[in-house]
Write a structure and sequence with these properties.
By secondary structure, the protein is an all-alpha fold. It is built from 9 helices and no strands. It has one domain.
C-alpha cells in the first residue's frame, strides 16, 4: 500500500466519522445530561462497535449481504427498530425535570458498562456502517495489503470514531452548553428524538 492510499483511507473514514449520525447525536446528548465522563464511556463503546463492523467486513460479512440481500434487509429492520426505540425514550422523557446546578452534581446513575454497551449496540444497529467498510473503505485498500497494516487501519478506525465522539462529548459537556440544554431540555430532547426517528426510517427506506 502506498502512502497516498493510506492517507486517503484515513481521511475518508475521518469524514465518515464526523458526519452527523446516531452515534454523534447520542454522544452530544449524553455529555450534556451527564458530563464528559459518561460521554467518554459512551464514546468508547461507539469505537468498539465500529471496530466490530470493520472486523466483520474483513471476514466477509459484506460479501454475505451481497449473496443474501434479505439478510441485510433483516439487519436494517432490527437496527431501525432499535434506533426508533431510543428515539421514543428521548421523546417520552423530554419533559422530565432535571435539576443540575454544577458539574459536581451531574447524575452518576448510568454505569460505565451500561454506557459502553449502549455505544456498541448503537453502532451495531446501523448496518450502513458495515456497508461503508465493505465498499468505500475496502475499495481503497489494495488486495495485497499485509495483515499488520490491516490491523493498523483497524486501530486508526477506532481512534477516529472514539476520538471524534470524545471531542463532541467535551464540547457538549461545557457548563455554558449544559446550561442552555437545561433551559431548553424539552425542545432539545424532542428534536433529538425526532431526528433519530427520521434516521431510523431512512435506514429502512434506503
Amino acid at each position: 500500500m502506498t502512502l497516498a492510499a493510506f492517507v486517503a483511507i484515513y481521511f475518508v473514514h475521518l469524514a465518515a466519522a464526523v458526519s452527523p449520525g446516531p452515534a454523534v447525536l447520542l454522544a452530544a446528548r449524553t455529555s450534556m445530561r451527564e458530563g464528559m465522563r459518561n460521554g467518554t464511556y459512551l464514546s468508547l463503546g461507539i469505537g468498539i462497535g465500529t471496530t466490530m463492523w470493520v472486523l466483520c467486513s474483513l471476514f466477509g460479512l459484506t460479501t454475505l449481504f451481497k449473496i443474501a440481500p434479505n439478510l441485510l434487509i433483516g439487519f436494517k429492520i432490527i437496527g431501525a427498530a432499535y434506533l426508533f426505540y431510543i428515539a421514543y425514550k428521548m421523546w417520552k422523557h423530554a419533559a422530565d425535570p432535571m435539576h443540575i446546578q454544577s458539574s459536581s452534581r451531574l447524575p452518576k446513575s448510568s454505569s460505565p458498562l451500561k454506557l459502553i454497551r449502549l455505544g456498541i449496540t448503537t453502532q451495531l444497529a446501523n448496518p450502513k456502517t458495515a456497508l461503508f467498510f465493505g465498499t468505500v473503505f475496502f475499495t481503497l485498500m489494495p488486495a495485497t495489503t499485509p495483515v499488520w497494516l490491516q490491523a493498523l487501519l483497524v486501530v486508526i478506525v477506532f481512534i477516529n470514531e472514539c476520538g471524534w465522539c470524545i471531542v463532541i462529548s467535551r464540547i457538549f459537556s461545557l457548563e455554558t452548553t449544559r446550561g442552555t440544554y437545561l433551559k431548553l431540555k424539552k425542545l432539545i430532547d424532542r428534536v433529538c428524538g425526532g431526528f433519530l426517528a427520521v434516521l431510523s426510517a431512512k435506514l429502512v427506506l434506503t
